[in-house]
Amino acid sequence: MNLHLVASLLGRGAQLERLSDGITLLALAYGLAPLLGMPLQPLASVLCVVLLVLGLLHKYWAIRVALDAELFAKLSASTDLPADTQALDRALIDLRLKPQAVDARDWPSRCQAALALLRRQAACLALQLLLTLTTLLTLPFTG
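Given the sequence above, the corresponding structure tokens read:
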């Protein structure tokens, strides 16, 4: 049941990803405004670049979280978890997605590591939201 719960929590990363994608696309559209002849302040350009970098970083964590969500969902239905764990580790090593041949971690520590990825993803979104909201709230005062 723990693996199923972790898979469900990791699945919520897709919702975070959609919100981040929206903010990133808005920043990109605003950053490309000079192509349409609209002037863009230097501070706004910096803001767009920072939002885009945060969006790309968020996308990286979102991809990792989505992969873990699918793997945890698959393994939560396993009837032979030790054998499936070895098969997963072997596949990850064969695809060069895992650097070491031996992984002595138990499933609770693997769950914590996967949830740490979700927290990183959420932190990137929080930074994007904070930067966007701060800008929107200070915009009337900065012109």
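The chain has one domain: 2-78+107-142. Try to locate this feature in the token string yourself.
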